[in-house]
Design brief:
The complex is a heterodimer of chains A (333) and B (330).
Chain A lengths: L9 E12 L2 E13 L4 E5 L6 H8 L7 E9 L2 E2 L5 H7 L4 E4 L3 H4 L6 H12 L4 H14 L5 H4 L9 H12 L6 E5 L7 H18 L2 E6 L2 H7 L2 E6 L2 E7 H6 L4 H8 L49 E3 L2 E3 L7 H8 L1
Helix pairs in contact in A: 4-5, 4-7, 5-7, 7-8, 11-12
Chain B lengths: L10 E12 L9 E13 L4 E5 L6 H8 L7 E6 L2 E2 L5 H7 L3 E4 L13 H11 L4 H14 L16 H13 L5 E5 L7 H18 L2 E6 L2 H7 L2 E6 L2 E7 H6 L4 H9 L5 H6 L30 H5 L5 E4 L2 E3 L8
Parallel strand pairs in B: 3-8, 3-9, 6-7, 7-8
Antiparallel strand pairs in B: 1-2, 1-4, 4-5, 9-10, 10-12, 11-12
Helix pairs in contact in B: 3-4, 3-5, 4-5, 5-6
Classes of the chains: A alpha/beta (333), B alpha/beta (330).
């Protein structure tokens, strides 16, 4: 191992993702910087089309053929973007585990779940099929799958959504990954089942020092799990920082706007303040700050070039109307 | 707004039951009956918003469909302003439907992509025999009510964002000036920043037009902003029914307590130290519900009596009903 213990586990620099579409291209991710350290839970939040999933798919080399990625994504110093397919295959499911939103479509419907988990083991480890299946049962026990030894023979359709997501997590952990990329892991689940899965993720990150990249639109889930939050808007980071700062001292008008528009169980009498307008479609580059057309604090200089990320307290913020802190805190309250 | 209000409620639902037959499809499966709704009763007064909340499969959508008779209930009674809906002929039902309309969850699939917005919103008027001029005036009025520009009339659904499409769906539901609108997860397909706009629009329309809402949702924080009363459903039954503020501040049923405690609050400082009730397992299958109290298999308070006797939905405080053998109301 290298001597630099502070080197981030995952280091994304100036990542761009472009999708070729009929009559042009969509520039979905426009220069993303993101670092995740060992054992850290980093939440990437944003609305649909903000580029949060596309950037992680790019990092894993899982983009469709009509997409291209440039920039740099390093896992512990190893460049992934220009890595050979065989290298990527050994890293995916090996050092990087992945879980996706819909556990039903991510599982093979005609294979017992213990076989599917065993397959993940055999792909990366020199073990016999028999050993791999024993390991599969162990993994199911680790994710609190009830009656694992017997129910390992189930087919996906015999399981509930929560149980399927546990199978997905067991598969993702099969080769003792250092980092887990979880794309909306609880969005398809009911709230009481979501609570179970979040509990499981919390205990796994503690017991195994697992780093997690949590991609989600649900700020409630973020609040309960994340250490750092990266708010994306129109393919770029609007603001990133420690979770408490993001929720309690948002610096970017978009972050503050998101928080103010959330209905909150604990504050029923608070009026909801929507963010007017809709996010831009990225067929062409926005002029200036992409959020400016929806921003109540926008000033003329917002339209002169895209704002660069700058440090404010412990956060990085891409906004030229700084200092915005006082106003934003007021809005979010 | 309870039974003692001077006028009869707008909607009175009594002992509603809906069963679906599952046919045997292979040698591995068996024929079975799913009781999606098992004896549900509630009232909705004029101008009142009642929410049905619960997890997937609890029967909340089926209940609403039965109330609007979009599916035929197996038994039970639905009185709408004194008229028994379950017995109406097809023709009379169509006439009655003027007064109750529905908004669907997915604004992308519930609008015909080949019709203009004007045609979509005017269709209910056309069905109920309005003239071309009446339709044009009413459509303009409706688009203004849901805050879509009048230039929307000649455009098609794909030219609008999710939030705007949901506004189109709402305008269509309001076309015939209904008394009751059933809303099935109207904001759950929308992004957060858009959700707030639709919630505010629904609040405003409710207050301005005196609409009654039957609101179906799984998100308890959204429900809180839109309802006067909330009914919590579990496996086809109402387990708790109370005024919204009361239900959230003093939940009495173990399931309601668990639901509220599982709903994440977007504040890391609160979330960190929160004591959660995490339920074990999943809801049982509705083809073979547990005896007695249906929640007992996941309930931390369950005792012997829960398996033997089904708890009735009793009033524990003013207008607050709970189906539990233990008085957890404090």
């Amino acid at each position: 191992m290298s001597m630099s213990s502070t080197r981030p586990l995952l280091d994304v620099r100036d990542l761009h993702v472009r999708f070729a579409v009929r009559g042009g291209q969509v520039h979905a991710v426009r220069g993303l910087d993101l670092t995740v350290h060992r054992g850290e839970v980093a939440a990437v939040v944003g609305e649909s089309g903000s580029g949060k999933s596309a950037s992680m798919l790019a990092a894993l080399g899982l983009l469709d053929v009509n997409a291209s990625a440039t920039g740099s994504v390093r896992l512990d110093g190893v460049e992934l973007l220009r890595a050979a397919p065989s290298v990527l295959r050994s890293i995916r499911g090996g050092r990087i585990g992945m879980i996706f939103q819909d556990p039903m479509t991510s599982l093979n419907p005609v294979l017992e779940i213990r076989r599917q988990i065993a397959e993940a083991v055999i792909t990366h480890q020199q073990v016999s099929p028999r050993q791999a299946e024993l390991k599969a049962v162990e993994l199911l026990e680790m994710v609190s799958f009830p009656d694992a030894a017997r129910r390992a023979r189930s087919f996906p359709h015999e399981l509930s959504g929560g149980m399927r997501q546990r199978v997905m997590i067991a598969m993702a952990l099969a080769n003792d990954p250092e980092i887990l990329i979880a794309d909306e892991p609880t969005t398809a689940l009911d709230v009481t089942v979501q609570a179970q899965i979040l509990d499981l993720l919390r205990s796994l990150r503690k017991s195994r020092e697992l780093a997690i990249v949590l991609i989600t639109h649900d700020l409630g889930v973020v609040a309960g799990l994340a250490d750092s939050v990266h708010v994306m808007y129109a393919g770029r980071i609007a603001e990133s920082g420690p979770v408490v700062d993001i929720f309690h001292r948002p610096q970017h008008p978009y972050t503050a706007g998101l928080l103010a528009s959330l209905p909150r169980l604990d504050r029923p009498d608070r009026d909801l303040t929507p963010i007017g307008g809709v996010p831009p479609r990225l067929y062409e580059a926005p002029v200036g700050c992409a959020f400016a057309p929806r921003c109540q604090y926008a000033i003329p200089s917002c339209l002169e070039g895209e704002p660069a990320l700058q440090s404010v307290n412990d956060s990085l913020v891409a906004c030229v109307v700084l200092p915005f802190a006082e106003k934003a805190a007021e809005v979010a309250r | 707004m309870t039974v003692d209000s001077a006028t009869a409620p707008l909607v009175q639902v009594r002992d509603l039951v809906k069963e679906f037959e599952l046919r045997r499809t292979s040698w591995r499966t068996q024929a079975a009956t799913v009781q999606a709704v098992s004896g549900v009763s509630f009232d909705i007064s004029s101008g009142e918003a009642l929410s049905l909340v619960g997890e997937s499969g609890c029967g909340k959508t089926t209940t609403a469909w039965c109330v609007l008779r979009l599916v035929e209930p197996s038994s039970g009674s639905v009185l709408f302003d004194g008229v028994e809906l379950t017995e109406l002929s097809a023709g009379r039902l169509r006439e009655a439907r003027r007064r109750f309309q529905m908004v669907f969850q997915d604004p992308y699939t519930s609008l015909n992509p080949r019709m203009t917005v004007g045609e979509i919103v005017a269709e209910p008027l056309l069905v109920h025999g309005a003239t071309a001029e009446e339709r044009r005036d009413r459509v303009a009025e409706l688009l203004e009510q849901v805050q879509l520009g009048s230039d929307a009339v000649d455009r098609y659904p794909h030219q609008f964002s999710g939030g705007q499409r949901q506004r189109i769906g709402i305008a269509r539901a309001l076309a015939l000036s209904p008394d009751l609108v059933a809303l099935d997860e109207p904001v759950s397909a929308l992004d957060v920043s858009i959700q707030a706009e639709i919630i505010r629009l629904l609040q405003r329309l409710r207050d301005e037009l005196g609409l009654a809402y039957l609101f179906i949702a799984h998100d308890l924080s959204v429900v809180r902003h839109l309802s006067h009363r909330v009914a919590v459903m579990y496996l086809g039954k109402i387990v708790e029914l109370a005024p919204a503020a009361e239900l959230y501040s003093r939940p009495a049923h173990p399931y309601t307590k668990a639901l509220l405690s599982a709903a994440p609050i977007p504040d890391p400082l609160i979330e960190r130290d929160r004591v959660r009730i995490v339920l074990e397992g999943d809801p049982p299958t509705p083809t073979d519900p547990p005896s007695g109290c249906r929640f007992r298999t996941r309930c931390w308070r369950a005792e012997e009596i829960c398996a033997e006797v089904e708890p009735p939905l009793d009033e524990v405080a003013d207008a607050h009903r709970v189906a539990c053998h233990f008085n957890l109301w404090t």
